[in-house]
């Protein structure tokens, strides 16, 4: 992939837009930014992209792994709401804003697109100070402080779900093409074979994000013997930091799934947390799910899942109610009812958005073009 390091002068090639993406901290912020970067490059391979992140987040590994150049600015955890705690981070935020200004100047930024996270707010402020057009995209149903502030600095505000930020246009969440173009049924036989699963028995996919989810793991461990004895198969990503589960026939456990497209294709039903990216991907591929929202934070995970659940594409089980017995009561009847699973899959797919990456990319390019006019 072409080098995207900042340079002293913008490219003289009129079509080569220079786009800065601001995201950091968690994969939920970084992954949509990378998916947008891929879409921008597909539309115009000459597009120059710089990603501004923080010093300690997952962007340090995720961004270079996708072939993009990362510059870090000083970052500190931001309070979830406006309070006296904000005063403690103002000095560092000001220094980070000056760092971001220098990066925007050196790169010749024509537009900044932000997805939230600790490093996003200084970049938003730098864009405002340098009069560079700013685009803010919010993935979660309940936004963080960075995007709430950023949304006040620009008319270009987008969200994955309605009612998130005032004045936001709903555009869905940018997804990887391996997911957005997935045909689950066409890939099912290959996917099940790749994991050593039988082709003729229902498959439950269990995952809790990149690090796994201890409570999901514990509940599945208590239910696995009865699930597999009932003729169901389980594909379980338990998380590399968690203990390896006990082996059972019909049960495949992996510390991490690096081919989520194959996992989605192999499955009839998912049991998972409710991060914004997880909800968007499952809806887009039409995989029904039982969502167990993370019980900490500001409650955004339950809200993330609520729209697809309301559309008929899933169920919600509260973390406090999660147990082996609850799983058996909920999952076994679902996995046995192929007609209901098919109906839920259709509802999820109708709710999902597959082309948000290209929608947002073309919007960003249009904003950059207007700035040149």
From TrEMBL:
Keyword Isomerase among UniProt keywords: no
Keywords, ordered alphabetically: Cell cycle, Cell division, Cell membrane, Cell shape, Cell wall biogenesis/degradation, Glycosyltransferase, Membrane, Peptidoglycan synthesis, Transferase
Positions of transmembrane segments: none
GO biological process per UniProt: carbohydrate metabolic process; cell division; cell wall organization; peptidoglycan biosynthetic process; regulation of cell shape
One GO molecular-function entry: undecaprenyldiphospho-muramoylpentapeptide beta-N-acetylglucosaminyltransferase activity
Domain called Glycosyltransferase family 28 N-terminal: residue spans: 19-157
Glycosyl transferase family 28 C-terminal domain: residues covered: 203-360
Entry protein name: Unannotated protein
Gene source species: freshwater metagenome
